[in-house]
Amino acid sequence: MKAHTSETQSTISPEKALNFLKEGNQRFVNNLKANRDLLEQVNATREGQWPFAVILSCIDSRTSAELIFDQGLGDIFSIRIAGNFVNQDILGSMEFGCNVAGSKLVVVLGHTKCGALKGGLDAAQIQGMGMDNLNHLINHFEPIIKEVIQEGEEYSSKNGDLLERLNQQNVRSAIDDIRNQSSTLRNLENEGRIKIVGANYDVETGVVTWL
Question: 208 forms bridges with which residues in the sheet?
Answer without folding.
Answer: 201
